């Protein structure tokens, strides 16, 4: 039996929208991929069609990236900074979010709003006080300065996010654990944390992504090439005056973005659960 014309049009519109979205999302990766392997002659020839290879692919850009720059060092710096910031964020945001969620009355809600507002403060307003802190700690021109600075914007939002999720965890579970002999901290560790793994994973991905993609603070506090994270190193050492190393730039961007894209896809369900978990009790 033929389907109604309206249903066919509706399905066609749906699939057309999905295809459009997929193409829109995948096109930057495709562009970075072909640019990485194009020859310089193919890249700078205005008569060449830019959407595919007009000359045989080359590995020269990747060879230059790995052999003649500090790209591997930049990647390891970003990974180390990200892991340290994630650990600090969890260490502070977990107890803070739980405390705010269990605080009686409206005081916890008002305090959480105040904490979230600090996340909205523009980074340019915090340069001077943060620079003073970095100087006092003796961390000038060191990647450890970023480990100190980055939690100032990861902790507020992650605390607010965890607080919303902890509010959705019934108090009765903790009370039952306390009745069975657990302390308040033991009840939190043994009952609340296992139920909050989607939110914790969301915080880990969110904090790590923010750290890896941040540029302004890195540009402000670091000038030594060996201490730079990948975002700063690629942008400053592969752009020299009016000369852009497009093949190397796109190769570095592609290699840096693939792990983050894979992580988001592997944990997408848990990530969405963690983002929306505090919205509905």
Automatic annotation (TrEMBL):
Give residue ranges for domain ABC transmembrane type-1.
75-267
UniProt xrefs under Pfam families: BPD_transp_1 (PF00528)
* Regions crossing the membrane: 12-33, 79-101, 113-131, 143-163, 243-267
Annotated Gene Ontology cellular components are: plasma membrane
Main subcellular localisation: membrane
What the entry lists under Gene3D superfamilies is as follows: MetI-like
An annotated GO BP: transmembrane transport
Localisation per UniProt entry:
Cell membrane
Which UniProt keywords are present, listed alphabetically?
Cell membrane, Membrane, Transmembrane, Transmembrane helix, Transport
Q: Which InterPro entries match?
A: BP-dep_ABC_trans_perm, MetI-like, MetI-like_sf
What is stated as this protein's family in its record?
Belongs to the binding-protein-dependent transport system permease family.
Q: What is this protein called in UniProt?
A: Sugar ABC transporter permease
Q: What is the lineage of its organism?
A: Bacteria, Pseudomonadati, Pseudomonadota, Alphaproteobacteria, Hyphomicrobiales
């Amino acid at each position: 039996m033929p389907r109604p014309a309206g249903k066919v049009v509706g399905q066609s519109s749906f699939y057309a929208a999905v295809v459009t979205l997929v193409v829109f999302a995948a096109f930057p990766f495709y562009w970075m991929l072909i640019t990485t392997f194009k020859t310089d002659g193919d890249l700078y020839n205005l008569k060449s069609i830019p959407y595919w290879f007009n000359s045989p692919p080359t590995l020269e850009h990747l060879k230059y990236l790995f052999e003649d720059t500090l790209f591997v060092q930049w990647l390891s710096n970003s990974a180390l900074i990200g892991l340290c910031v994630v650990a600090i964020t969890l260490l502070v945001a977990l107890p803070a979010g739980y405390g705010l969620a269990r605080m009686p009355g409206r005081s916890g809600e008002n305090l959480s709003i105040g904490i979230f507002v600090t996340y909205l403060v523009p980074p340019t307003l915090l340069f001077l006080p943060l620079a003073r802190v970095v100087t006092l700690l003796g961390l000038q021109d060191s990647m450890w300065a970023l480990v100190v600075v980055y939690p100032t914007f990861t902790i507020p939002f992650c605390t607010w996010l965890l607080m919303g999720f902890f509010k959705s965890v019934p108090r009765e579970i903790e009370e039952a654990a306390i009745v069975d002999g657990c302390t308040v901290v033991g009840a939190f560790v043994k009952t609340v944390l296992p139920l909050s793994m989607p939110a914790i994973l969301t915080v880990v991905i969110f904090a790590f992504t923010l750290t890896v993609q941040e540029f302004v603070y890195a540009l402000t506090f670091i000038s030594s090439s060996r201490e730079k994270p990948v975002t700063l190193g690629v942008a400053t050492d592969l752009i020299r005056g009016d000369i852009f190393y497009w093949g190397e730039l796109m190769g570095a961007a592609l290699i840096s973005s693939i792990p983050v894209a894979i992580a988001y896809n592997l944990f997408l369900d848990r990530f969405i659960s963690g983002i929306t978990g505090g919205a509905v009790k």
